[in-house]
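Subject: sequence -> structure tokens, single chain

Hey, anyone have a minute? Need the predicted structure for the following. Not urgent.
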Amino acid sequence: MGGSVKDVQSMAELDIAVRSGAPVILHFWASWCEASKPMDQVEAEEQPEISEAYSVSVVPFFVLFKDGKTVDTLEGADPSSLTNKVIKVAGSINPGEPAAPASLGQAAGPAFRETVKKLVKEDGSSKVENQVQPSLSDALKKNLQQLIDSHAIMLFMKGSPEEPKCGFSQKVVEILKKEKVKFGSFDILSDNEVHDGLKRFSNWPTYPQLYCKGELLGGCDMALAMHESGELQEVFRDYGINTNASNEVKVNEPGNGKGGISKSTGLSSILTSRIESLINLGPVMLFMKGKQDEPKCGFSQKVVEILRQEKVEFECFDILSDEEVRQGLKIYSNWSSYPQLYIKGELVGGSDIVLEMQRSGELKKALVEKGIVQKETLEDRLRKLISGSPVMLFMKGTTDAPRCGFSSKVVNALREVGVNFGFFDILTDDEVRQGLKVLSNWPTFPQLYHEGELIGGCDIVMELQNNGELKSTLSE
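Reply:
Had a minute. Here:
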């Protein structure tokens, strides 16, 4: 895909280029965006008419056309994703064309590759750690990075190497077997959090995803192109990975292989490090069967219930998703069953011990001593607000500027009888607004409370005032 670079000056000019049927890549950039600058040689457009037509809200932004139609888009400066998309649009490369570096793929022409290489070098946006989006929690980022780093070659796929659940995953497994390398794998169908989170973490929207020493190489198309050109073997060698393994090498699943158990030394340093990282993933860490919302055994469910009763935030790891961790942690902790609860990196025990500690009050004491702050639930917060004043009014707006007639009437009624009261503007907090409806079983606002008990809404307050009972009711 040699192609040419051209500044598009109008929508009409773009339409002519697109209607030609040839592959076209439209690049939106801005001089104020640092990430755009290394790529502004690829394609540039600053026409608001065109930007609005393709709903461009961030730069750099790419639109890919083929056969006169829009076939794909990409937000952000991500060389790996961009190149993979270019491969799909441009088709196969010329067999004699020199191979580009691993993160650049095979389909783009020399000018394009050199530009993307510059972006990789200067901006570093092909690195996984620079692709993390703020919407991911710190705990999930850490977990994803640990999974990526758990093996020198790591494949996130649908299914397992023995039973791939899609043709693309099967193809990459076959490629790695032909390359005769050991690799770890993770079945993204087994964990929806990892399935969705890794797409954002890597800024790569599809599976499989292949990583080498923590760096994303790409998906099925990229792996196939690199394998056929011989470049994949070169990449593995550059990273010091043995590519001369015997044909009998066993493919690693989400936990067999490099991090496995050694008969002579016990757990390997890699698995030990991974287990320790998982144990310290959060102040309170639970290794269980299933997840918090879907426990797969009664003992795990019991410990989840206990921790929720204690109102503490906790992380959890589904030991059914990783046989290596499941077996390794038993040896590491010298504890043969699950669940296993850890507080600040120290093993507390299983369900029987946790239950006994809760009954005796020792669990709460241990949490306090370790500085674990109890999580405030919405109900706790609502009851605290309700008790904020002996007479408490939840209304729309403020007492000086009510935002509805009913709220205004109640404020005037309370002032007329000389009752001091606190108030909360439910328009400022939708969580409080919706939660209070459920807690009080009262669907509308305003809501008036006395000593933590619901009096009622506008109609009841006005009735009490008309009967001369409002002040006495709120003074009892």
